[in-house]
Amino acid sequence: LRNWRELGDAGVFMHENMDGNFDFEGVVLTLPTKTFERELDLKVGDKDVKLIEVGPAHTRGDILVHVPGDRTVFTGDIVFSNGHPPAWAGPISNWIKACDLIMSWDVDIIVPGHGPIVEKSALTNFKAYFEYLTTEVRKRYDAGLSVSDAAYDIDLSQFKGWLDEERIIVNVNTLYRDFGATAGLTPLELRAWMGRYRREKRENTHGHTHACPAHPHSH
Questions:
Q1: 207 found inside a domain
Q2: CB 187 within 8 Å of CB 142
Q3: Given this model, what pLDDT does residue 217 score?
Q4: Does residue 136 belong to any structural domain of this protein?
């Protein structure tokens, strides 16, 4: 990101997260040769492979890859192991439905998009994260809090140890939209607030105040 210095706090956050860890030079975008809606059955060698569309949730095109014969599912970014998942697209309800779908399958191995391989039992707590956020964010939405104020106000101690806690900013913003908000944080504002949230958590600041413009929403 060559112009990150021109983007303020958002640029600093993206530079810290991307520029030092990834090299995109030489990457060539390749278009898909086949598309589908809802489900697609494939044969890979002697294995039956099922592709199931479950998005939008993390992104608009979330897909699960289910290999019934191996009792395995490759979830892409529908499952984050030991990390806070960012719902860039939403709605959050689709993510909860995707968790229910995986839990209904006869699978032993879940290969997440981020983090180590887990067993199906790990999805119970992962789904609970979204259910908890939905309840807590709704209270603050109804009370008229801004996205950033709501994010700072929510207690995430039961998910202590999960990586990237600052993604709560993204998820609150998405839930506000799910609840009918007509205004929210822009992509750059999201990243700026994520950077501030993470920085303050790292500095172990408490009882902070932060200047935040009002983000109105309609009911």
A1: no
A2: no
A3: 43
A4: yes
Please, which residues have CB within 8 angstroms of residue 49's CB and are 6 or more apart in sequence? 41, 42, 43, 65, 66, 67
Residues of the domain holding 48 = 32-202
Reference 56, options 191, 195, 157, 174; nearest CA is 174
Residue 113 in domain: yes
Q: What is the rounded distance in angstroms from the CA atom of residue 101 to the CA atom of residue 179?
A: 23
* 37 plus 126 within the same structural domain: yes
User: In angstroms, rounded to a whole number, what is the distance separating the alpha carbons of residues 72 and 30?
Assistant: 27
Q: Which pLDDT score, from 0 to 100, does residue 211 have?
A: 45
Q: What is the pLDDT of residues 155-188, one digit of tens each?
A: 999 999 999 999 999 999 999 999 999 888 999 9
Please check whether residues 24 and 36 belong to one and the same domain: no
**What's the CA gap between 98 and 85, in Å, rounded?**
14
